[in-house]
Design brief:
Chain lengths: 559, 342
Amino acid sequence: MGAALARLSSAGRRIRTLNSWTWTASVTSLLLIAPLLVVVFGLSAPANDLWPHLVDTVLAGYIVNTVGIALGVALGTAILGVSTAWLIAMCDFPGRAFFSWALVLPLALPGYIAAFVYGDLLEFAGPIQTALRDYFGWAKGDYWFPAVRSPLGAVVVLSLVLYPYVYLLVQTAFATQSATLIETGRLLGRGPLRIFRTLAVPLARPALVAGCALAVMETLNDIGVMELFGIGTFTTGIYRAWFGFGDIGAAARLATVLLLVVLAVLWAERRLRKSLRYHPENDRSRPVIRYVLRGRRAAIATLGCGLPVLLGFALPAVFLAWWHVRAGAPIDPAFPAIMLNTLGLALAATALTVAIAWLVVFGLRLDPAFVRPFARTAGAGYAVPGVVVAVGVLGLCSLFDHAVDDVSRMIFGVGTGLLLSGTVTVLLFAYAVRFLAVSMNALESSYHRIPSTLDAAARTLGVFPRGMLVRVHVPLLRGGIATAAALVFVEVMKELPATLILRPFDFNTLAVRAFEMAHEERMADAALPAIAIVAVGLVPLIVLSRRFLQPNVAAETSS
Amino acid sequence: MRFLTLALTLGIASSSILAATPTAAESVNLYSSRKEALMRPLLDAFTEKTGAEVRIVAASGGQLIQRMIAEGEYSPADVLLTVDAGNLWRAADAGMLQSVDSKYLLSVVPSDYRDPGNQWFGLSLRARAVVYATDRVSSDSIATDLGGYIGLAAPVWEGRVAVRSSGNIYNQSLIAAVIANFGAERAEQWVRGVVGNLARPPSGGDRDQIRAVAAGEADVAIVNSYYYALMLGSEESNSIGNTAIYFPTDDQMGTHVNVSGAGVARYAPHPELALAFIEFLASPEAQSLYAEINNEFPVHPDVQPSGEVAKWESFTPDDVPVVEFGKLNADAVRTADRAGWK
């Protein structure tokens, strides 16, 4: 009797702890959704006649451009990501070890900087077209050259810097999940192409979908590339309605449409992943035996991996460096301070964002049904333009500050003024809203590899849930945490619009500096901070790609 | 949970270290849409003169106004500085600026270049000029075939005009000025005509338009005067040797001039210092710096433009007060949307 009571009461305790974790996870998610809700509530702002004007004139163009470019980038990143991942995971050719991590490098290059470099290189007045005209004696209209500042140009530039998302995820999937099946395929006499088409790609589809979804979300929120190339999308439209017309109602309507699109993409991603989930627990993940390529095939493989690295990273980086050297620009005396500031900010933001993501993912693990809707919506911040997040965060913090001030006045007779607004805390909050999805994705895919039987074992041993988290999950999640941290760190280094609006006085980051100088069209001065963003971003990315790199097993076997 | 607490503490601790910028006893808080690098010499000069520090946040004008609105009566902003009249008008319209009483500013800044209610004052002038290719367009032709802005819509310029996007406030203010001079209907016809004459879809910045003219992609470009002066003073001057600047004027409309300017924030914590800062920016010393750094025309009548700018011919500025650009901005943008100016 006594024992039964004790068991009952301890069960009660367990349920309570369970609830405190899941509640915290849900409330935290809600907190991260709140800025987006502030924006959506802008819908209640009186609609003046701007909205019908937008519908009549530019909305159709926004839809066509936004959808077209998003689909284009999905396709572009899928082609680049899957083909390079296949080569690295399944083939042996000269330079394979180098490319396995070098293929991640374009992720360090902010899209707006790549767009700037390519716009300058490939425009009519740029060096390439000028050289062509000089050499052939052409004038305007004598020849055809693709317009770089066009929707197609945006698709190419964005695909070149975003494909590593697909590459990273699909390469891992190729190298681990499908090993046994692929070997079975080989035994049954299927050629490499057929295995690629009928086995490997279908098996890697969850990873492919996840990678493409990340790339599409980055594309949807992009403003730098679109502004440089003069392309109207939902995001530039929101920007224009808000900051150009000062019309919150119209901006909120555009933002809400965009949010719905984002939620639809996220939902589709989940659906696709769910119906396609394969359980790696049953697979004794061991490295695949790779095809050894020789001669022309090896050359093609080297070229196929080399081009994305060259175009998405090396070429723009070299041009930035060259611009800097050519102008003989002195090094900005403020540069070291800006560098340190950026590093500190990125580290703090990474710690905070990964911690929150972990909390939410853990809550999701404990009670999926309850936490899922909150977690999924909180992830939407990633696809929302940084500017929109910024304005939501600004509004929310202002509400909070004014509420605290009112209460303090009522009780103590003294106001508190602005507690949060204009501090780094606001900036960190905004980063967490923006980049939660990135770290959650990495942690979740890591969690999927921990068999749920381990949770059950922890529960049986009575170390549930805190002991389970600390003693079971933490050691197994180290890789996932490293991935999440590296991705968030690089994203924060590159983040521009929210930083611009929310930063405190006299506060500069490398991205802000690079943007301001590029905006003044002082490329020589923009080059140094831009190079620094890329260089600092490389460190975590190289660590990350080394983690993904499979141990180099002796490659034998056939063509 | 312990990890979480640790991470949170770390995050907050490092952020408070980052935030702990020393606060001077006396400081002016500046919200500026002119980039920090361009303001720095002026800020340093003010600090040297008065001992008061200037703290700066730079972002676009519209964003800074949104931030002021969100911060409300506790906004730390003392001064809002923008690079066009439209945003100053919008800030005043949103109740984010205050009227000031300054005999000095009234005496130095001509009435066309400030707010009639004394909420903001122009500090530097920039003309929206035309840069043309001298090897394809003669100086006679630019005066007769083009004349004023309205000439840019004439059939003779078909496929020859370069201009950046209508999302740019300088173009919006130009359209607003055309509306003020010629009425809404003619202005819309004019925009349609200009769009029909474009050599390429609008993209890039003002310098890109100048490069397009030099390289032969277009024959005339609509750009702000200081961009051209800055390029002439840079290593790029050789590659644009076949170009010249022209200030469009006709019987009805003079050359379109916009201002960069500033106003004291409605809830400024240091209003006296804020006004002292704006008065400093209008002083001959700061005006020369302005002219030098960015090749703009000083607003102070006694200060001369510098370098390349001083060599240019003088022109007749349009007589529409800049405050109209703000009032007509929404009409201008809608006109551009309807006429398909991207």
